[in-house]
Structure formats: structure tokens, C-alpha cells
């Protein structure tokens, strides 16, 4: 079994400081190691090695690169699919899953073997969950837009009330903006 990294044993506040240092392009790994070791020495704790910091930085850079790549791919495909930018990755995953389900159904229909009932059931459940997730996302987006309209109406009518707007005009503005 692999030995636990000394970085993983750091207290949360010191780990956060290390992460901040590693994100700062002006700070080298050697400087980050020295600064963290100085803090650890003040607290009477064992130091971390340069190689442990290097391994940790490399792992974090890999994870960061994968996250950045997934965001870029999502942004590209969401733009092509015409969806709104909110929840890009989730919407992209829904679309990819739809395509995978469609491919699976096509393979099952083209096969000379009859489709296994379990496979059909699993596909049906996956499609149902996928559509439910899409509906939830759509409802959430609608709610967010509604709340934004209500906030805008409140701010506008409050400002206009201060300027002496009539109640009839306020009601008219509310009907236009939020349908009330």
C-alpha cells in the first residue's frame, strides 16, 4: 500500500496557503516549499519535502488541465447546440447521453439477436432520468429568469416611486415586466 502523502496530512489552513502559493505564477515550488515549511516549523510540525510539493503541484496541474479542457469542450458544443451558457457541462452531458442512448437503441434494432429485456429496461430508465433532468434544468432556468425580472421590476418601481410615480403606472410596469 502506498504511503500517505505528507501534503494530505497538512492542516486545512496550511494546505490552502500552499495551494494559493502554487497558483501564484510569481512563486516557485521551491519558494512555496520554504514558506510552508517555515509555517510548519513555527507550529512544531514536520516539514514537507520539495518532491512532495512537486508531486502535488503536478497532480493539481493535471486536474486543472482536465477541468479547463472539459469547460472549453462544453463551451464549444453548447454554442453549437444553441443552449444558454448556464449549466453548460450538465447540458452537454445530457446531449452526449442522449446520443449514446440513441446509438445503443440503433445497435439493438440492427442486431439479429433479440434485445435483452434488461437492456431495454435500463435504456428506458436512463432516458426517463435524462428527460427529468432536462425538465428540472429548464424549470430552474425559467425560475432564475423570473426572479431576475421581479428584481428588475422592484428596483425600477422603487426608483420611480421615489420620483413620484402613480400607482397605476407602477401596476402597468409590473404587468409588462412580470405579468402581475
Walk me through the structure.
Pfam families: Phage_Mu_Gp27 (PF11985). This is DUF3486 family protein. With 180 residues, the chain is an all-alpha fold. It has a domain at 1-81. It is flat, with a radius of gyration of 27 Å. The protein has helices at 12-23, 29-42, 50-81, 88-110, 117-162, 167-178. Helix 1 (12-23) packs antiparallel against helix 2 and helix 5 (117-162) runs antiparallel to helix 6 (167-178). The longest helix is centred in the last third of the chain and has 46 residues, at 117-162. 7% of the residues are buried. The N and C termini lie far apart (65 Å). Helices cover 77% and strands 0% of the residues.
Give the arrangement of secondary structure elements:
Layout lengths: L11 H12 L5 H14 L7 H32 L6 H23 L6 H46 L4 H12 L2
Helix pairs in contact: 1-2, 2-3, 3-4, 4-5, 5-6
Brief summary of the model shown:
The chain is mostly helical. Helices cover 77% and strands 0% of the residues. The protein is built from six helices and no strands.
